[in-house]
Amino acid sequence: MLYAAVKQHFLDNVFMKHHHDPQLGTKKHSVLVLDKSGMDVVNSCFKIGDVASSGILLVEDLAKRREPMASVDAIYVVAPVAQSIESIIRDFPRAVRPEAQQYRSANIYFLEPCNDELFRKIADSPLAKHIKTIVEINVNFLPIESQVFTVSKQCNGDMMKIADGIASLCATLCLKPTLRFHSDFAQSAEICYRIDQKLKEMGSDKPVSTDAELVVMDRSIDLVTPLLHELTLQAMAADLTDYSEGIYRYRGDNREEKILPLDETDDLWEELRHQHLADILKRVHSLTKDLKQIHAATSSGTSAKEVKSAIHQLPAFLKKKARVEAYLNLAEECRGQYFNCLEKIILLEQDMAVEHTPEGAKISDSQAVNRLSTFIMQPTLTTDIRLRLILIFMLTIGKDKDEQFFNRLLHHTDIPEEEFQVVKKMLNWRDKAKASAFQRRRPPPEDERFPTSRWDPKIRNIIQEIHAKRLDEREFKLVGQKSGAPELRSAMSARYGGGLTGRPREKRKIILFVVGKVFKVCVPSKLSFPGGVTYSEMRTVYEMSKVSNTTILLGSDSILTPSNFIESLRGPKEQ
């Protein structure tokens, strides 16, 4: 969904405006020049063929040296930052013959609003007389998957820029959602009011759907999920292998490095990414069978006709063979890590998180800490894994027992005392957050086929409450609409074909956004905590979308793995 919406936004507001001549009906051609932010957004939703068919002759990296093309117009898609603007200005130096400059003209599209200082810098430069177009297209968010997005990397924790990114998402999707903020987090209210203001400023010349709900919350709503080992394929790949930003890197049979893009263009990845390891291992047999069939198909030809046919199909066979081998390697890598050292650790994590064993017996704090001690005293386990276990335990025992168990754990492990600052920081975060119904332990999921996957991310419960219209308005407060006010959904859906006639009514949309948190500790210092969403929460969004027949989008400032969550908690040491 997100990919298609961003792609159409670019086609309508950037490419078509330059490359279609209304009189001749022919396409003009330009060079597309992208900075890092522009590259991320365009690459997320366009393939090379799509860009070429949109009238682009060449795609260039703004940061690299480029060959001059003085007879061609340039389309720049960039973030409004000094470095990118200075690079564009250098493309059009003063007192240079037209045929010697980089491009014939500049059409500049900023991904987000540009400040006055940078606009003045452009106006005072030789670039100004070469500009044909300068527009803010408000795409300062990045589609990560079809239902997952992050805000612009330029935000750097700036709450107002985060709000602008969310507003640009709503505008791109032609949504005017009901806005809710987590009442325990004052900055979520600021973000929601800013979104409301920005959407009013942006307006829209297209029909806008109000059958949508946006909830802004902070990470403290669920501190346990980012620490747990998740045994679905995508989450394991991100946690345990060299998988990052949709690319899996591994070593082939002859030890050379190989890469495999794992994204939603791959049907097999879409099928497998949210499956449990136990189900993945069942698929290994069929994948191995596929590999054998590929080998047989490429080597069985005896007649000249069969050999010619095999040669003709060889590129497709080789591509499929490489893909199957990569999936087998990924499954084996995850399986090996699980059975080598993680099986008992993950079982303990789940027991502590849900507070009962797979057989249904309640686990006491003493039982948990005794089992925990056997792991945290093992120097062969990494510090990060031991810290994860300690944090899960400390977050689930209750505030009144902190001191008793913290000191006990500290003296029964060789983890350096300075690393325990991570635990102190997490407990500080938990203590400063008010009690929430969603912070308390929830009943275990109905489907407990896998003892190692009994915990449900608490975002699932929030989605259920939203869908049932039972979300507590004291905890998740409305912006711009009082409790009990009449909703506009039925009127809007009827107006745009939601009744018995016209086009089918579109699915209701729910957008959830998770931000970090900043506490004022003492002036001028602040204590900040990471935001981010986890792969298990991403999986939950897709699952809940299917069962509720609702389009659910999940956003944040980053995608969390347990390792980068722990690393962000380390941060500056507390005094």
TrEMBL record:
It comes from the Eukaryota. GO terms for biological process: intracellular protein transport; presynaptic dense core vesicle exocytosis; vesicle docking involved in exocytosis. One of its GO terms (molecular function) is syntaxin binding. GO terms for cellular component: plasma membrane; presynapse; secretory granule. Belongs to the STXBP/unc-18/SEC1 family. This is Protein CBG13544.
